[in-house]
Amino acid sequence: MTRKIVSSGNVSGNYGNARCDLRATLGSLEIPSAILTASGCAAAGRELDNYFDITQIGGIVTKSIMLAPRSGRATPRMAETPSGMLNSIGLQGPGVESFIENDLVWLRQRGARTIVSIAGGTAEEFGKVAAKLRIAGGFDAIEVNISCPNVEDRGQVFACRPDSAAQVVQTVRRNSDSKIPIFAKLSPDVTDIVDIARSVSQAGATGVSVINTLLGMVINTTTMRPALAGVTGGVSGPAIRPVAVRCVWQIRSALPDLPIIGMGGIRSGHDALEFILAGANAISVGTSIFNDPSAPMRIQTELQQELASRGFTSLAQAVSYAHREADIASMEEAPSSAAEDSETEWDFISE
What we know:
The protein is built from 10 helices and 16 strands. By secondary structure, it is α/β, with parallel strands linked by helices. The chain has one domain (24-350): TIM Barrel (Alpha-Beta Barrel). Strand 15 (260-263), helix 6 (269-278) and strand 16 (282-285) form a beta-alpha-beta unit.
């Protein structure tokens, strides 16, 4: 990872018309932009297309689809949290056949790149959904949602154990076109997310999507009961971003060649850049869509500006850049008082 010019901070200048190559490679899948939507936050993209041209971003990751129609969990399903939200939708959806006949057909006609997110109560159910999609065709990749916290049976969170995560991925791979990339969506609610990432990679996953929401809870202090009918739900939004960046960093450090789609609290190009520097090859925009439906397109433009302002001409140059060895020249040029300033700062904080 050597480059001619790089600045470690913001660079003055007008980068409003910056043109940085945002193409991303995810295994055999090549997309013109590293910006995707996050599953569950934009359905199949039909509504978002009223706000911006969905064919101009990297692709749409659909809401997780299951084998049969599902009503989801009881209401209330959502609650506010500091710098985020708590949701307990419960994988509501029309079932895979309706999805294929309506949403997948529309996405194909619209010309959008599509990553279909799938879910199931058992490994066999995941396999049946994958088999139906294989027959239908017309999509670019599969995201295997083995980590949704919004299910009544916590035993269905397959991503909590390496063996169950691998079993689901193996089943999906057996029932899918061998040319279709498969990404396993992982949960941060585990002891070692690297173990899970390694297990799904060995089981046949092309890459991983990191991270799904964190399991959380809110108490309504007026009723003095849980705010959600399902008691617990998934925490998303800016509050979880440091956790997501940490997970991307750890997986990239251990598995340097594994494609990673990073997500979790991304609401600006600056946020997206963090994930890219940590090791993500692409990013998904989710919760920010709820208050800004044009967020994916806006973040795409902002990310171009962030990269250009630091001297990058392509996103690929920036992937994992934070993992590079220490810059010896910069260390030698550092002021001699830097260490003293650092000690003073920490002394102040400790007081």
